[in-house]
User: Fold this.
Amino acid sequence: MAARNEKTTSAPARPAAMPARGPGRGPRAFGPIQKPDKAVTLRLLRYMGAYKPQLALVVLCILLSAVAGVAGSMFLQVLIDDYIAPLLKETNPAFSGLLQAIFLMAGIYLVGILASWAYNWIMVGVAQKVLKQIRDSMFSHMQTLPIRYFDTHTHGEIMSHYTNDTDTLRQMLAQSVPQTFSSLVTIVTVFCAMLYTNLIMTAFVVLTVVLMLLSTGKIGGNSARFFVKQQSSLGDVNGYIEEMINGQKVVKVFCHEEAAKRDFDKLNQELCDNATNANRFANILGPIMNNLGHLQYALIAVVGGALALSGFSGLTLGGIAAFLQLSRSFTMPVSQISQQVNSVVMALAGAARIFKLMDESSEEDHGYVTLVNARIENGELVETKEHTGIWAWKHPHQDGSITYTRLTGDVQLDSVDFGYEENKLVLHEVSIHANPGQKVAFVGATGAGKTTITNLINRFYDIDDGKIRYDGININKIRKSDLRRSLGVVLQDVNLFTGTVMENIRYGRLDATDEECIAAAKQANAHDFITRLPQGYDTLLSGDGSGLSQGQRQLLSIARAAVADPPVMILDEATSSIDTRTESIVQKGMDALMQGRTVFVIAHRLSTVQNSDVILVLELGHIIERGSHEELIAQKGKYYQLYTGAFELE
Amino acid sequence: MVKRLSRCIREYKRDAVLTPICVSMEVVMEVVIPLLMANLIDFGIEKGSMTYILQMGAALAGACILSLIFGVLAGRYAASASAGFAKNLRQDLYYAVQDFSFTNIDKFSSSSLVTRMTTDVTNVQNAYQMIIRIAVRCPVMLVFSMIMAFSVNPELSLIFLGAAPILAGGLFWIMRHAHPVFERVFHTYDKLNNVVQENLRGIRVVKSFVREEHEEEKFQKVSGSIFQDFVKAERLLAFNMPLMQFCMYGCTLLLSWLGAQLIVSSHGSAMSTGQLMSLFSYAVQILSSLMMISMVFVMITMSRASAERITEVLDEKSDLVSPPQAVEKVRDGSIDFENVSFRYSRKAQRDCLSNINLHIQSGQTVGILGGTGSSKSTLVQLIPRLYDATQGSVRVGGVDVKEYDLEVLRDSVAMVLQKNELFSGTIKENLRWGDPNASDAELERVCRLAQADDFIQGFPEGYDTYIEQGGTNVSGGQKQRLCIARALLKKPKILILDDSTSAVDTRTDALIRKAFREEIPDTTKLIIAQRISSVQDADLILVMDNGKIRDLGTHQELMENSPIYREVYFSQTKGGEENGSQK
Assistant:
C-alpha cells in the first residue's frame, strides 16, 4: 500500500502481535490457545440477554418438553404396575381406565411436541439475531480501528473472524445452548423421578454416571483442545491461500507453483492432523458414553433383579422397568452434554477471537471542532444547514462560547517528529507552511518520508512531537471524520469497490447526482474510456476493478476525489501509472481541480511538480531544500541533481 | 459430482471402508442388547432365577464391551478418513488453482476461491464423516431393529411400518424446501466475504473519504440477508424435532394400548412384559435412526451446495497447458509476433490487440511507450504465455510459445509486473523465488544490479528482514527494485519490465538500466515505461495506441516521424530544455 511507502527506514522488527510466518511458521496470530474463560461466556450470554422475553419462553418450552419426556418414562411403570399386572389377575379385564390414562398421556405428549417446536423456532431467530448483531458490531468496530491494526494483521486472518469464527458460534447458539439446557432440565427431572421411585437404585445410577463422566472427561478435554487447534490451523491455511491467490501472477511468472504447493501441503497436513485428532476424540466419545450406558443398564437390571428378588427394598417389576427407562433418560442427556462440549469449546475460542477484535482500541479521537456549512451575514460566519460551498470550523470553547473559523486550507506543520515504531524516527523536525490555494510538492528518494507526512495530516498516524495546525487549529482538536472530510486523497494503489463505475465515482460524495459524477469524470479525463466500456457508466466493476488498467483506475480515483470537492487535496503519486501524454491532458483537468485548493503533491516525475508553489526536497526524514522550481534549480543542490538526472542519458 | 469428489479419497480408502464395517458391527451388538434385556426380565426377574440373571448380565456386559470396541474403532477410522479426505480435497483444489490460467482465476474471483478451499471443504468433510458413519449406522440399525421387532411381535411391529412413512414423508418435505434456501445462503456468504475483503484492502480510501458508515450499511445489507435466509432455512429444520417426537410418542402410546391388551387378553402367553419393554427399546432405535437419517440429509443438503462449488473448481479445465511433446529448450531471446490479435474473453466487444507484427532480435533492448489502456501490458503478457493469443502466433527463440513446456518458457522469460507482489517471508526467501539454489553472494550481486543492495544493507536485519504480507513494510520503489532483483536471479533470456521502475527515482532508474546494459547484454530486455528517459536509449521503441503499434523505431527516428512520441517527449521535458542542452 502506497500510503505506507515510507515506513522503510524502520525496517521493522515485527511488532510482537505478529508471530513469525514463513517456513518455520509459528502459531496463528491469534496468540496462544487459551482456555476460554468465564468472561467470554458471560459476554456472549450478555448478547443473548437482549432477548429476555423470548428466552424466558424458550426456557418454559424446554421445561414443558422435558417434563413430557420424563412423564413418558414414568408412564411405563404406571402401565405395568397399575394396569397390566392387575388386569392380568382379573378374569374380565376392563380397559377403560387404561384408555383414559393413555389419552391423558397423549395430551401431555402433545404439549411436549408443541413446546419443543416452539423453542426450536424461537431459538433460531434469537441465535441468528445475535449472530447478525455480533457480525455487524464487529464490522462497525473494525471501521474505527487505526491503520496500524491493518498493517499488522493479514486479511485472511481478519476475514476468518467473519466466516469460520461466527459459524462456530452459530452452531453453539442455535444448537448447543438449548440442547444443553434441555439436557440439564431432563437430568434434574429424571433425577427427581428416580429418587421418587427408589433411593438405593438412584444412588447406584448416580455412582455409575459419575464414573462415566470421569472416564470421558479426559477424552472430551483432549478433543476440545484439538478442535481449537484445528480452527487455528484452518485460519493459517486460509491466510496462505489468500496471499497466494492474490499473488498468482507472480507465482506463475516465476514458475513457483511447485514450491507454493509444497508450502501449502505442509500447512494442509498440519490441519489434517489436528482435524483427525479432534474428530477422533469426538467420535469415540459417543460410543463410549453409549456403551457405558448400556453397561449400566445391564448392571441396573442385575442389581435391580437381585433387589427385587430379595424383596428387601420393595422394588416392583414395574419399578425396575421404569427405572431402566429412567436410567436411559438419565444417561442420554449426560452423553448429549458431553458431546456438545466440543462445539462449545470451539465456539468459545471463536468468540474469544471475535471479542479480541472488538476489544482492539479504536482510533483515539478527542476532537471537538467540527466542520459545518456556513454563510456570511454582515461579514460574520453563520452556521447553516444547506450546502453553501462555504465551510467553517465550529469551535466550542470551555466557557461555552462558540467561534467559527472559515475553512481555507491553511496547513502548517511545526517541528514535527514521527516514527512508526518507538525510538525510530522517520521524520525529524519537519516544518511546512502551506497557504490556502498553494500547491506544495514533496520530492525525494523513495523512503524519504513523503507519504508519511500526508499520513500525518489526515491523522492515519499521530505525531510524536510538534504540532500540525489546520486553519490555525491544532488538528488534534478536530474531529477525525471532519478533518478527513476536508481532505481529498488520491493514492498510488487505487482501490475500487464492487459496483458500477458510477457508484465508484460517487463514493467521493454519496449525494452527488449522475451529472456531477460525469462532470467529475470529464474533469479527470476519465469520461472517454468510461464511455468506451461495454456498459459505459453502468459497467459493473468486480474484484477490485480488475478489468481496468492501473492507469484507468487512477483516473477513476481522481474523478472520485473530484466529486468530493474538498478544500485540501493530497495527491500521492496520483498520476504515476498514467502515461505522460495522457497526464498532460489530465493535467489541465488536474489544474482546474487544484484551482483554489491547497494541494500536496507527491510525484517522482518532476514534470508533475514543476509548477508547484513550493517544492520540498526530503532526504531521510529531513527537509533539505525548499523553494520554487526556479529557486531550487538556481541552488544547484539535490533537486537540481534529481532534475538533471532525469535527462541523464549515459 | 460424487464421482469426481470420491477421487479424493485415495490413501484413506482403507479407513473409509473400515469405518462402515465397524459401525455395522457396533449396530448389531446394540440391537442384540435389548433382546438380551427382554430375556433377562422375562426369564430372570419374573421367574426369580438369580443364576439366569447373572448369566444374562454377563452376556449383556460382553455385548456392551464388543459394541464399545467397534464403536471406538469406527470413530477413529471415521476421523482419519474424513480429515484425510478433506486434506486431499483442499490439495486438489489448490493444485488445480495453481494450474489455472488467469482467465480461469478471473472467472471465480479470488475471495470465492478462498471460501471454496476452506468453508466449503469443511462442510463437505463433515458431511462425509456423517455419511460413512451415521448414514451407514442408521439404515443398518433401522433394518436390524425392524427385524428384531418383528421377531418379537409381528402384529405390534406393524405400528412401526405405519409411523416410518409419516416421518420420512415429513422429513422429505422439510428438506425439499430448505435446500434452495441454503444454496442462497452460501451465495450470500461469498458476497459477505467480498465486502470484507474490499473493505480491508481499501481501508485507507474508506477512512480518507470518511465512508465508514456507508461501508457499514453495505455490510449490514449483506449480513441482513444472511440472517433472513438462515432463519428461514433453520425454521424449516425446526420442524424435524417435533415431527420425530410426534411419531415416537404416537408409537409409544399405541404400543402401550395394544400391547397391554395383548398381554392381558392372552394372559402373557402371546407376549410378555419383557417383550413389550424390548419393543419400546426398538421403537426408540427405529425412530431415532430415521431421525438421524434426516439429520444426515440436512448435512448433505447443506453441503451439497458446497460440494457443487468444489466440483466446479475441480472440473475447470485450465485453458493453458503444456503440449504433449513440448519443446524443452529456449534457443535464444528473440521474439516474434505474427499477426497477433487478442481479446480477454470471447464476450469482449473489441480486440485489445489487433494485428500486431513485431520482430525483436535476441539481446535487443526494446522500449514500449503508450497511453493508458493502449494494451502495453497485454502485449508482453503473451510472451511468457500468461494468456494465449486469440489469433496469430507469438514465437520465442523461433518457436511458437504454445509448443514450449510452460515451465521452460516461463523460466527463460522473467517478468516484473506492474502490480508488484512480495510475499510474507524474509527478503532472502522472496528473492529466492527467482532461483531456489542461489548463493548469498549471488543474491547480493543481483541486488546490486537492481540498486537494491544499499537499502537492504541499511536494514538492521539486512537480507533477513521480514517482509509483511503484500510487502507493506517496504516502500513502492524498494518493492520494485526487489522484484527486479528477483527476476534477474532467474538469469532469463528475456526480461520484461512492465512499468516496474515507476516508483524509483530517475537517477536510480538510470543506474538500473546501465547495469542491465553492462551486466546482461545478451538478455533481450523489454521495458514498458511512462518516462521517455527510461526508453530513450533503447535499440527499438514501440509507440502503442489503442491496441496497435502506431510507430516503431529508435529515439532519433521517432523524434522525426512520430507526432505522438514528439508530443510525449516535449511534455516531459517542458521547461527542462536548458538542462537538456547541457548533456
Observations:
- Confidence is low (pLDDT under 50) at residues 575-583 of chain B.
- The CA atoms of residues 559 and 567 of chain B lie 9 Å apart.
- Chain B has two domains: 10-315, 335-420+493-582.
- The longest strand of chain B covers residues 335-342.
